[in-house]
């Protein structure tokens, strides 16, 4: 058994003053532990989006009609409320699970040796995004599920997924200067993919705000645009993303790019195919709730896939590590020379 050191009064004071430093002085996690902690935070950031979608799709957005309490004078649902209250309250409780996952990621990153300031900052960025979105979620309830605040709520959740995905990626890298694995032309094509994907997500929130799932059975304001028109725009943007991904895969293969970026582009293409099938089926079957929920989950996977493609375009070794310059230069020269 591992011997647990005695806690002295001085230790207690140090723990109260700076608990993260106190833990870091006494614990060094394995790299796989840090990576798993970052992955747990990423998974929970997706789970909170999916369960938030379930709240809207079941009409439970006002199941707890106030915030931060569920009802006036009670933090939990009362017997007088329906199952909508239980669904909304469960989603609120999952925020604490998300906070625990993010907190674990921060502790693990802070305790890793040598200390990686950038990794710890990514963990804290997630914490503040969670807090901000919790407050925004309360505003969404207080303004009666105004569709613009609901859209902002989802976009802020997407920002959380972004930071969580970057932190997960960084746990598998060193802190050396990033070195590109592809030429400028490929980088520009990928950035175009990122921009169009962001537009796709943003237009998707408008589709939601104008669509038939307002989040509550009462009279909820909707975005005053043609739902079919904005849905068609959403589909056009989706096809552009698919086309860019398809072209990118062939381009990377043609110039002999490293296997990592090619694998990430392949993964993204497969995710997009599944997401496209779900999207068209739900459109022609008049938006059944199960398929809409799957489509929201798919949108998270698409965005994570796009980020993984972007982050695969460079490598970062440990600061003290020697990079295989010869192989890197050979790849870079072959890609840069292809016009």
What is the strand and helix layout of this fold?
Elements: H1 9-17, H2 19-26, H3 31-57, H4 83-111, H5 117-142, H6 147-171, E1 179-180, H7 184-210, H8 227-254, H9 259-284, H10 289-311, E2 314-315, H11 325-336
Antiparallel strand pairs: 1-2
Q: Kindly provide the radius of gyration, computed on alpha-carbon positions and rounded to a whole number of angstroms.
A: 23 Å
Which consecutive residue ranges, at least 5 long each, have pLDDT under 50?
320-339
Main beta sheet strand tally, sense and closure: 2 strands, antiparallel
**Based on helices, strands and strand pairing, what is the structural class?**
mainly alpha
How many E strands? Answer: 2
The run of helices and strands is: HHHHHHEHHHHEH
* Residues in helices, as a percent range: over 70%
Quickly count the helices: 11
Distance between the termini: 62 Å
- The proportion of residues in beta strands is under 5%
Mean pLDDT: 85
Global geometry: flat
Strand order of the largest sheet: 1-2
Architecture overview:
The structure is a single chain. The protein has 339 residues and is mainly alpha-helical. 71% of the residues lie in helices and 1% in strands. It has a two-stranded antiparallel sheet with strand order 1-2. Helix 5 packs antiparallel against helix 6. The protein is flat. Residues 320-339 have low confidence and may be disordered.
Short summary:
By secondary structure, the protein is mostly helical. It is 71% helix and 1% strand. α3 runs antiparallel to α10.
Task: Label this structure with key terms.
mainly alpha; 339 residues; 11 helices; 2 strands; flat
